[in-house]
Every structure is written in structure tokens, then in C-alpha cells.
From TrEMBL:
<dbReference type="GO" id="GO:0005524">
    <property type="term" value="F:ATP binding"/>
</dbReference>
<dbReference type="Pfam" id="PF01336">
    <property type="entry name" value="tRNA_anti-codon"/>
</dbReference>
<protein>
    <recommendedName>
        <fullName>Lysine--tRNA ligase</fullName>
        <ecNumber>6.1.1.6</ecNumber>
    </recommendedName>
</protein>
<feature type="binding site">
    <location>
        <position position="401"/>
    </location>
    <ligand>
        <name>Mg(2+) 1</name>
    </ligand>
</feature>
<keyword id="KW-0067">ATP-binding</keyword>
<dbReference type="InterPro" id="IPR045864">
    <property type="entry name" value="aa-tRNA-synth_II/BPL/LPL"/>
</dbReference>
<keyword id="KW-0436">Ligase</keyword>
<feature type="binding site">
    <location>
        <position position="394"/>
    </location>
    <ligand>
        <name>Mg(2+) 1</name>
    </ligand>
</feature>
<keyword id="KW-0479">Metal-binding</keyword>
<comment type="subunit">
    <text>Homodimer.</text>
</comment>
<dbReference type="GO" id="GO:0004824">
    <property type="term" value="F:lysine-tRNA ligase activity"/>
</dbReference>
<dbReference type="InterPro" id="IPR012340">
    <property type="entry name" value="NA-bd_OB-fold"/>
</dbReference>
<dbReference type="InterPro" id="IPR018149">
    <property type="entry name" value="Lys-tRNA-synth_II_C"/>
</dbReference>
<keyword id="KW-0030">Aminoacyl-tRNA synthetase</keyword>
<dbReference type="GO" id="GO:0005829">
    <property type="term" value="C:cytosol"/>
</dbReference>
<dbReference type="GO" id="GO:0006430">
    <property type="term" value="P:lysyl-tRNA aminoacylation"/>
</dbReference>
<dbReference type="InterPro" id="IPR002313">
    <property type="entry name" value="Lys-tRNA-ligase_II"/>
</dbReference>
Length: 482
């Protein structure tokens, strides 16, 4: 860095700028390569261009220097700086002042070198931005920690990192387009909230000085989107950041992106069709329908099956489990299958945990896990024909939950009872329980239409198609301070 700082000072002393406001670019590296990629060795075009790129390779030899200039997307073009074309001063300054990592502007004719490399024969050059730090060495400097912590380096030298960003953008665009094409309206709901709700999760706490009011960051977008449906926006969605003050691992991040969508006069089956349309559209956009995992091959073209929680658990443990099965019996099953459980959990919570530990990891192809006990989702309505279960599903693909949906609870009386019970749990020390949201209940008391609701983890959708952990799919994930 000291040597590079000296070169920066030398640039300025020689009357050159180290960080100009701009350079006279006339063509992109990509467009030059597209137009002249088929030149024969030694050909000249007569086309004089001004291009800029990051120097990723240099070879300085006597009267002729070579450099590879790289565009942001990784496309490269060779620059040749010769005494005959550039002159002594340009050649000497190039050798003395240019390092790997610098952004450099070159002006000259597009030619093909004697070895057939597409090049610019430089007549003049200038520094676009001097790099004070050296480029990382791909195999030595870029361990996973560095890649995630200094993502700009990862993007700079690793094409796979760029592809992940492009695939994420393509998936986000596809999800949004499917919803817009089906008549959904995109809205934005508050991130700062007085009452946290819409999910069972521990919120981040903050304080609003203007009102001298404690606030939380949202843990879901659900309750405000439902308010919009009450107001008459019959199909509504939001793609946005969610914040949960919980653990960090390969599938969980304290901030992540979700899609939530609500449809008046829809139900859990309407939303199942919607999520299948979204995921298959993403598969088409990326050209990926079969995905290899360490648990087996996911075939998105296979039948998307439905599996009830109680029948699925019964088959896995070899005995019938029903909503009447006692907590004591379920704890015995947990012991037999080495599933650790909390002694305070009731039968419903035990069923949910046992299914998640024993059955869920075995579900590779898309499976709608349905008919949950009521405590699993306090905002879902009772099943229309089955006792003691709710109309809700989790979509499991590759042994991992990717999305969830309900036939939404719209009865304000039952909803008040559910949220009151949640607030009692919160008062008893449950950090993940929801709070009683009087304004949301007031909205429901104005009559919400029957509706289906969908939640889809965008990061987990990207993990599905890329096979990466959540830290790799989020461009700038939250990291512990160095």
C-alpha cells in the first residue's frame, strides 16, 4: 500500500489525475468483443475506441507492454502499449504507475495481436481510479469468510459470485412478474412498527425519539397487507426485508427477504397453485428443473404431493398419531428417535417438532405439508371439514421449508382469542409470541373478505436453485465484527 500511495502521489506530480471525475469512454469492453470477436490474427479494423476496465493482468517488456482490462461482468480485452504508437512518455508512465486492480482508460485502434488476441493498440491512456490495495489471490486470499465479509472482492475475481447476483435478480424479477400478471398490486408496509406480529419470532427493539416511543423492526409484513385487503385491494403482495433477532446458521439470517401475498376469496389451495406457478416460472427463467443435492435429486417436474402432519408422522414412527395423542406418549416417541424436546411443550408443539425432525428432512420433491395443529399458525382458520387442525401448509423441497400458506382467519372474535393467548405467552416470557394488535383487530371487525395468504422465503428460493447457503445468496449478509 505504501508503494501504491507513492504512485498515486507520482501520478499527480506528473500532471495526471489519480481519480478523475470521468474519462471519455466511447465503447464498452463487451460491445468491442461482440463486434470484433472473430478477427483473424494480425487484423486491423481502423476503428478507434475509448474503453475502460480494471487491470487484472500486466506484462511489461521493453518497448511493448500488455494488460488485460476487465469489465464489471468479467469480460476482458487486451491493451497493448507500444513505444511506436503510444510514445516514450506514455510507455514510461504506464510501466511506472499502473498496478493490478487499477481502473484504466485506453484510447486506440481495435486490432488482433499476432497471437490472435483481440486488443486495443493504445495511443493514449489515463488513470480512471488508482487502487491502493492489491487484488486478492483467488486460491489463497479468498476463503469463505473473506468472500462473504468483503463481497466486492468476491465479485471482482470470482465469476460464480457475479452469477449468483444475476440469478437472484432474475428470480426476484420473475416472482414479481408472475404476481403482476395475475393482477396482484405491490405495496410497501412499515418496517418500524409499534406492535410486532404476523409471525412467532423475536423482534429487534429500537426507540423513536420523536414520539419517545419504543418500536420494533417488523418480523413479517402480514398484518398490514391484510389491512389493505380489508380496504378493498383484493390481491396484494410485498417483497421486502424482514428482521428477526434470532440465530445465525446456514439457513437462517437475522435479516432476510420474503414475499407475502394475499388474495380475497382465495384459500390454501389457491395459494398452493400460486407458489407452484412462481417456482416453476423461476425454474423456466434459469433453465433448471432438476437439482442435485446431497439428499438426492429434486425433480420440480414431478407431482407436487400433499401430506398431512399426523399421517406423515404416523407412517414415519410406525404407530398412529392423532390430535388426541398425549404429550407423554409424544415425549416417549421423541426419546426413541433421539429428538430433544422441552419438557414444557404441549402435545401440539411436540407433534410439530417431531415432524420437523423426523419427516421433513426426507421430503425431497415438492411436498405440501398440511393439516397442522392450531398452535402452529395462530393466524390460520380452522379446517372446514377436519377437526382439531387448521387450513395451512408448508412447502418442503429438498428437506427444507421454502414457503407457507393459510386459508386466513378472518373471524375477529376468534382472532382476538388467539392473539390474547399469544400475549399471555409473551407476558410469561416467550420472546417469540405475538403481541395483541388492537388496530389490526379493529380492521378485521370491519369485515375482511375470505382470503388465502402466502409467504415465500426469497433467500431460500435462491438457495434451492443455487445450492448455496444463505450467507452466499444474500449479497451483503450481517457479519460479526472483525
Amino acid at each position: 500500500m505504501r508503494i501504491r500511495m507513492d504512485k498515486r502521489a507520482e501520478l499527480i506530480s506528473r500532471g495526471r489525475e489519480a481519480y478523475p471525475v470521468g474519462v471519455p469512454v466511447t465503447r464498452s469492453i463487451q460491445s468491442v468483443r461482440e463486434q470484433y470477436g472473430d478477427l483473424e490474427a494480425g487484423d486491423e479494423t481502423g476503428d478507434v475506441v475509448g474503453v475502460v476496465g480494471r487491470v487484472v493482468f500486466v506484462r511489461n517488456t521493453g518497448k511493448l507492454c500488455f494488460a488485460s482490462l476487465q469489465a464489471g461482468d468479467g469480460t476482458r480485452l487486451q491493451a497493448m502499449i507500444s513505444l511506436a504508437k503510444a510514445g516514450q512518455e506514455n510507455l514510461d508512465d504506464w510501466k511506472a504507475l499502473v498496478d493490478l486492480g487499477d481502473h484504466v482508460f485506453v484510447h486506440g485502434e481495435v486490432v488482433s495481436s499476432r497471437r490472435g488476441e483481440l486488443s486495443v493498440m493504445v495511443e493514449d491512456w489515463s488513470m480512471a481510479s488508482k487502487s491502493l490495495r492489491p487484488l486478492p489471490t483467488l486460491h489463497k486470499d479468498l476463503n469463505e469468510e473473506t468472500r462473504v465479509r468483503q463481497r466486492y472482492l468476491d465479485l471482482m475475481v470470482r465469476k460464480e459470485a457475479q452469477e449468483t447476483v444475476l440469478n437472484r435478480a432474475k428470480i426476484m424479477q420473475t416472482v414479481r412478474q408472475v404476481l403482476v400478471d395475475q393482477g396482484y398490486i405491490e405495496i410497501e408496509s412499515p418496517i418500524l412498527q409499534l406492535v410486532h406480529g404476523g409471525a412467532t419470532a423475536r423482534p429487534f427493539q429500537t426507540h423513536l425519539n420523536a414520539f419517545d416511543q419504543d418500536m420494533t423492526l417488523r418480523i413479517a409484513t402480514e398484518l398490514y397487507l391484510k389491512r389493505a385487503v380489508v380496504g378493498g385491494i383484493d390481491r396484494v403482495f410485498e417483497i421486502g426485508r424482514i428482521f428477526r433477532n434470532e440465530g445465525v446458521d446456514s439457513t437462517h439470517s437475522p435479516e432476510f427477504t420474503t414475499l407475502e401475498a394475499y388474495q380475497a376469496y382465495g384459500d390454501q389451495f389457491t395459494m398452493a397453485e400460486l407458489i407452484q406457478n412462481i417456482i416453476m416460472a423461476c425454474a423456466d427463467a434459469l433453465g433448471v428443473h432438476q437439482i442435485e443435492t446431497d439428499r438426492g435429486t429434486i425433480d420440480l417436474n414431478a407431482e407436487w404431493t400433499w401430506l398431512g402432519v399426523y399421517p406423515g408422522l404416523s407412517e414415519a414412527v410406525g404407530r398412529e398419531i392423532t390430535p388426541e395423542t398425549t404429550a407423554e406418549d409424544l415425549r416417549g416417541i421423541a426419546d426413541q428417535h433421539d429428538v430433544s424436546v422441552d419438557p414444557s411443550w404441549d402435545a401440539e408443539k411436540l407433534v410439530i417438532e417431531l415432524f420437523g425432525e423426523i419427516v421433513e428432512p426426507t421430503l425431497i420433491n415438492p411436498t405440501f405439508v398440511c393439516d397442522y395443529p392450531p398452535s402452529a399458525q395462530p393466524l390460520a382458520r380452522p379446517h372446514r371439514s377436519k377437526p382439531d387442525v387448521i387450513e395451512a401448509w408448508d412447502l418442503i423441497i429438498g428437506g427444507m421449508e421454502r414457503g407457507t400458506a393459510f386459508s386466513e382467519l378472518i373471524d375477529p372474535v376468534i382472532q382476538r382469542e388467539r392473539l390474547t393467548e399469544q400475549s399471555r405467552l409473551a407476558a410469561g416470557g416467550d420472546d417469540e409470541a405475538m403481541e395483541l394488535d388492537e388496530d389490526f383487530l379493529r380492521a378485521l371487525e370491519h369485515a375482511a373478505p375470505p382470503m388465502g395468504g402466502l409467504g415465500l422465503g426469497i433467500d431460500r428460493l435462491i438457495m434451492l436453485f443455487t445450492g448455496l447457503g444463505i450467507r452466499e445468496t444474500i449479497l451483503f449478509p450481517l457479519m460479526k465484527p472483525e
